Amino acid sequence: MVTSDIFFFDVDGTLVDPLTHSVPDSTRYALQELKNNGQLICICTGRSLDALEDAGFDSIAKWDYYICCNGQISYDKHKQCIHRTPIPHDIVVSCIAKADALHAPLLLQGEKTILTKEANAHVKAAAAFFNEAIPPHSTYDDFDVYMMIAYGEVGYDYHDYNDLKALQFIPGQSSYADVVLKGMNKYTGIKALLKQLNISDYIAFGDSMNDLEMLAHAKIAVVLGNGCFEAKQIADIVTECVCEHGIYHALVQMKQIKPHESFERRTIYE
């Protein structure tokens, strides 16, 4: 058995099948087995806590911690904030101004979740990708923001925002990019939690560009078969796609959980 006290799971493309927008039964079984074995299980996502609640992720497992907005805010199992790094208000205002100049909407996630402009085709495509409702259009009134989302064509590199030196734009697998403070990522949130818990290592599951730092620092990094090339390059295990019971098979391979006859065994590539 590969020992670890704590496991971190990305949501979209890792827990959730990107095609069906559902969590496989094999994943639910695997998470419950980890809990039964006394392990800590944590969500580590670009989504906000509100978005997780709206999507019903509390019904999937009894999570011990939630690291949200790509590491900029974290919560315990009671959903009490334990760590937060808001984006300074002046930087938020500058990013909104740049997006306005490009006639582009910007999503702000924090004490509220709003769009700065009416949803365009890129916003609608991203919302469909995540199977989420489109947030309301409103005016920023200086509330604390922990992450922003910019929108553009799939493959767009967001170079038009390069003069915003305090921010980094992380393109996703649809028509959007996560926008966080430079130097902030999922691992910075994980590192703060590990320090609090006095735990030295962890196992991580991910699939996308915003998972790279989390995967790079993990004792064991598992990437789903549907994951991006960059994530697979740094993985210790590349497992099957979400829909092929990827999380379940990786955990069985590591002898973290017992096999279940309902889920066909497949080959896992290392």
Automatic annotation (TrEMBL):
<keyword id="KW-0378">Hydrolase</keyword>
<protein>
    <submittedName>
        <fullName>Cof-type HAD-IIB family hydrolase</fullName>
    </submittedName>
</protein>
<dbReference type="Pfam" id="PF08282">
    <property type="entry name" value="Hydrolase_3"/>
</dbReference>
<dbReference type="InterPro" id="IPR000150">
    <property type="entry name" value="Cof"/>
</dbReference>
<dbReference type="InterPro" id="IPR036412">
    <property type="entry name" value="HAD-like_sf"/>
</dbReference>
<dbReference type="GO" id="GO:0005829">
    <property type="term" value="C:cytosol"/>
</dbReference>
<dbReference type="InterPro" id="IPR006379">
    <property type="entry name" value="HAD-SF_hydro_IIB"/>
</dbReference>
<dbReference type="GO" id="GO:0016791">
    <property type="term" value="F:phosphatase activity"/>
</dbReference>
<dbReference type="InterPro" id="IPR023214">
    <property type="entry name" value="HAD_sf"/>
</dbReference>
<dbReference type="GO" id="GO:0000287">
    <property type="term" value="F:magnesium ion binding"/>
</dbReference>
